[in-house]
Amino acid sequence: MQRLRMVVKAVLLPLAMVTAIAAGHAADVRPSVPYVPTPQAVVDRMLAMGRVTAQDYLIDLGSGDGRIVVTAAKKFGTRGFGVDLNPVRITEANDNARRNDVTDKVGFYQRDLFETDLSQATVITMYLLPRVNLALRPKLLELKPGTRLVSHDFDMGDWKADESLRMDAADKFSGAGGDSDVYLWIVPARIAGAWRVQLPVSGKSQTYEISFEQQYQQVSGAARVNSRMAKIEGAKLRGDELTFMFSAEVNGTMVKHEFSGRVSGNEMTGQVALSGSRMAARVEWTAERAARTAAIPPLAGERNVVY
Ligand SMILES: C[S@@+](CC[C@H](N)C(=O)[O-])C[C@H]1O[C@@H](n2cnc3c(N)ncnc32)[C@H](O)[C@@H]1O
Fold this sequence. Notes:
α2 crosses α3. By secondary structure, the protein is an alpha+beta fold. It has a nine-stranded antiparallel sheet, with no helix packed on it. Strands 3-2-1-4-5-7-6 form a seven-stranded mixed sheet, sandwiched between helices. The relative contact order is 0.11. Helix content is 21%, strand content 40%. The protein is built from six helices and 16 strands. The radius of gyration is 23 Å and the shape is elongated. The two termini are 38 Å apart. S-adenosylmethionine (SAM) binds at residues 17-18, 29, 31-32, 35-38, 60, 62-64, 67-68, 83-86, 89, 112-114, 127, 152.
């Protein structure tokens, strides 16, 4: 049974959904014929996983009858829009919005999703195909850090999801039933490269040099403290929120540094907990991209993998 479901998802769905798929450019994209709607229970889970609220602006890429955008508006008061290449779907979606009395919050436009300005979005939803997701990925990674991306059934290749779940979807494929995967990614801030970090330790301002390597939301790196290298441990990047730690010798004793903070373009700010045999303190820290101040020579083995 499980095997049968996998076959349905892997073969029949792509065939039914899109006759020709994007190869990275809008000119290669043709409308999908016919379309496959996301079951309502899956729509609800997608919106829950995306933590959609009234403060969000949601864009559904390939919006079909508009059910994702309309559900978000009706349930949470979310504003947003959907785009679809098929004019019949746009008419259905506008009717759907009218029936549910949410035309003041949402709109639907006949437009190629690759030609759509996504900069307003705080949440993007999609039920497309693996190759379409991959073609879209560079554009999605350019979005504001913290933007949530929720996809029905298809992942983003080596950009691993921050969260995922599998659920039964009894009314999928016009009632034939099946299971659905739901994936969430949070667009990560770009932090790869060298940073100059400043913090007060025992009343004296200290400057550390930190170099981050990054692949999507996976981060590693090293810090240079008083000419000694320290490996960064436990780094986590969720949108623009960054935490990491290292232990380094300061004034003759080992001090554990536990950083938490926010990335904003070429700056970071936050708090660091310092602990050692002679010290326990919590202080503010700031960081600037090194390139904006003075060139910091690359740390040994530095490699700045971005995307
Ligand atoms: C599987 S349906 C999903 C519909 C809806 N998002 C949902 O989850 O119920 C995919 C939709 O994407 C639309 N579509 C496919 N390629 C597109 C493109 N390049 N630009 C805009 N819409 C597209 C199709 O017309 C179809 O309605």
